[in-house]
Amino acid sequence: MVIFNYETDFQLDNEEKYENWIEHIVESEDFYLGDISYIFCTDDFLHEINVKYLDHDTLTDIISFDYTEGSIISGDIFLSIDRVRENALEFGVDFDTELLRVMAHGVLHYCGYKDKTKEESDLMRRKEDEKMTLFHVEQ
Question: Is 47 a known ligand-binding residue?
Answer without folding.
Answer: no
